[in-house]
Specification:
The structure holds two protein chains of two kinds. Chain A is mainly α. Chain A has three helices and two strands; from the N terminus they run αααββ. In chain A, β1 and β2 form a beta hairpin. In chain A, α1 crosses α2. The longest helix of chain A has 18 residues. Chain B has one domain: Amidase signature (AS) domain (Amidase signature (AS) enzymes), CATH 3.90.1300. In chain B, the strands form two sheets. An eleven-stranded mixed β-sheet of chain B has the order 1-3-2-6-8-7-12-13-11-9-10, sandwiched between helices. In chain B, strands 4-5 form a two-stranded antiparallel ribbon. Chain B starts with 6 loop residues before the first helix and ends in a 10-residue tail after the last helix. The chains are: A mainly alpha, B alpha/beta. Chains A and B meet through α1 and α2 of A and α10, α11, α12 and α13 of B.
Chain lengths: 103, 469
């Protein structure tokens, strides 16, 4: 296992990129310390043996709950409602251009 | 004051027309006008004229078949979509967002005739234990304005302590209903995972999130839960198990009920006044014929580290959808605490670290489930504190991330395992601040927990005390 308390600013910038968060250099430096502290703290789990223990991701004991592939008119939003949260143009969402983005 | 009456007394008064729904709603707004500028429990107050119009309509349409919640004012944590009413999760990312649909829990309450008065303050996205991580100003504790009302649902509990309403709806992912209940001297049920639909609830950590009631008494919580619980086709994780009539089953005798008293929970991390108070509460259960025995739950110390891997991992994924394209604003509006949780979760899920953190925590989750299942196969409930500390002064938790996490010591495991847990008042510290305890039961044992809590409240009067506000 990797040493928990060895994060660099480069690591933080990488994680921020994965999380789609824009952070300043100062925030990044702050986060090195804070994340290291948290990660070191949660690494306490390494003390417990989990050999042959399966993972649990949820507690309902159900899996693959299906519904009929049919349109439920009660769940449909009108186009007007669906667009109500944001600026629109001729019935479309307005978004930032993506093709001239640097990264 | 009408809101000092129980829900059943209010419901009877409404049916007999001794109490007018309009008067109830007016009393809500009067309490809000008197206290809100000092307490800041609400992010949005419903338009008074709209609420009064609804009250008049309900009064006219009143029948003898009306739900016990008919005409009863309530508030909801601002974590639920309410069609036409601003919903923020206390984050500037969603400030101004007006949902185009309603959460199932809200719809059920509206259908029952309950009247929404406000959307309550919280830590943004549920990230916190003090309602300080909010973009809408902190909620002050009505028992001491220098202190936190708890979190993440400090608003709903404080609103209730100030008698803005007869009940509130909270959301509990790691203690967010129970911690504020303890710190505001109100009662609350964190339900079994899946007991209440999460549809329309703004997700924090999907495998841990639960929807539940907060009220003045256990009996009131029972009336609310039987209205909101049950299967919902819009939430595939909601349970198809029948919903018992909690309010009718509440008076069951607790004689012979077995309560486990886990000694690890009463160690040095716990404030000694909280410990002494709960030991007295234990004796109240014994006096009523319950059998209380010391037990061991040795995994306790690993609960918080496990939670602070799993919950941030899930939240980093859930909050990934907020891009400001279809609604809300951009990701630059997340608070520092929320950014920290997203970063921690993204790290724990990232390539090279997934096995060491996320997968490891999921395995430890299995061990916790086994530990609690084994104990609860022999006991009806586990009696523990809700929080290790009294309500902190503002800033105390924010300045110390580890202390902030430790505030969740006794609550997070319950969500990880999926169990129901009832939080209720059990006394006061020498500083005059309220103390709460929790009763954790087997899956879907809400009815038994209610009867234990009800028996306790029949024998004591802590829950009737109000802040001097």
């Amino acid at each position: 296992m990797t040493n928990a308390a060895a994060l660099t600013k480069k690591d933080i910038d990488h994680i921020a990129g994965l999380a789609n968060l824009s952070i300043t250099d100062r925030q990044s430096e702050e986060l090195v310390t804070q994340l290291e502290e948290t990660v070191t703290y949660v690494s306490a789990l390494q003390k417990i043996s989990t050999e042959n223990i399966p993972e649990t991701s949820q507690v309902t004991n159900t899996e693959n709950v299906y519904r009929k592939d049919e349109i439920d008119s009660e769940r449909l939003l009108s186009q007007k409602d669906a667009l109500s949260g944001k600026k629109q143009y001729k019935g479309f969402f307005v978004v930032d251009a993506v093709f001239d983005r640097e990264k | 004051m009408l809101f000092n009456l129980s829900i059943s007394a209010l419901a009877e008064g409404i049916r007999k027309k001794d109490i007018s729904i309009l008067d109830l709603v007016l009393e809500s707004f009067k309490a809000v006008e008197q206290c809100e500028h000092r307490v800041n429990a609400l992010i949005t107050v419903i338009d008074k004229e709209a609420a009064l119009t609804r009250a008049k309509k309900l009064q006219q349409a009143l029948t003898t078949a009306a739900s016990p919640l008919y005409g009863i004012p309530f508030v909801m944590k601002d974590a639920y979509c309410t069609r036409g009413v601003q919903t923020t999760a206390a984050s500037n990312v969603l400030a101004g967002y007006i949902p185009a649909y309603s959460a199932t829990v809200y719809k059920r309450l509206e259908d029952a005739g309950a009247i929404l008065i406000g959307k309550a303050n919280m830590d943004a996205w549920g990230h916190g234990a003090s309602t300080e991580n909010t973009d809408f100003g902190v909620t002050k504790n009505p028992w001491d304005m220098q202190r936190s009302a708890g979190g993440s649902g400090g608003g709903p509990a404080a609103a209730l302590a100030c008698r803005y309403c007869a009940f509130a709806i909270g959301e509990d992912t790691g203690g967010s209903i129970r911690n504020p209940a303890a710190w505001n001297n109100v009662s609350a049920m964190k339900v079994t995972y899946g007991r209440v639909s999460r549809y329309g609830a703004i997700a924090y950590a999907s495998s841990l999130d639960t929807v539940g009631p907060t009220a003045k008494t256990i009996e009131d919580c029972a009336f609310v839960l039987e209205t909101i619980a049950g299967y919902d086709p819009y939430d595939a994780t909601s349970s198809r198990k029948l919903v018992p009539s909690y309010s009718r089953e509440i008076g069951q005798s607790i004689k012979g009920r077995k309560i486990a008293f886990p000694t690890e929970f009463y160690g040095k991390a716990l404030d000694h006044q909280i410990r002494d108070t709960i030991i007295q509460a234990r004796d109240v259960f014994v006096a009523q014929g319950a059998i209380v025995k010391d037990v061991s739950l040795p995994l306790l110390e690993y609960g918080v580290p496990m939670y602070y891997i799993l919950a941030p991992s899930e939240t980093s994924s859930n909050l990934g959808r907020y891009d400001g394209v279809r609604f809300g604003s951009g990701r630059e509006f997340f608070t520092k605490e929320t950014m920290r949780r997203i970063m921690t979760g993204t790290y724990a899920l990232s390539s090279g670290y997934y096995d060491a953190y996320y997968k490891k925590a999921q395995k430890v989750r299995s061990l916790f489930i086994k530990e609690y299942q084994e104990l609860l196969s022999q006991y009806d409930a586990i009696l523990t504190p809700v929080t290790p500390i009294m309500p902190p002064r503002f800033g105390e938790l924010l300045q110390d991330p580890i202390k902030n996490m430790m505030a969740d010591l006794y609550t997070v495991i319950v969500n990880i395992v999926g169990l129901p847990s009832l939080a209720l008042p059990c006394g006061f510290g020498s500083n005059g601040l309220p103390i709460g305890m929790q009763l954790i039961g087997p899956m879907f044992s809400e009815s038994t927990l209610f009867s234990l809590g009800y028996a306790y409240q029949e024998a004591t009067d802590w829950h009737t005390k109000m802040p001097n506000i």
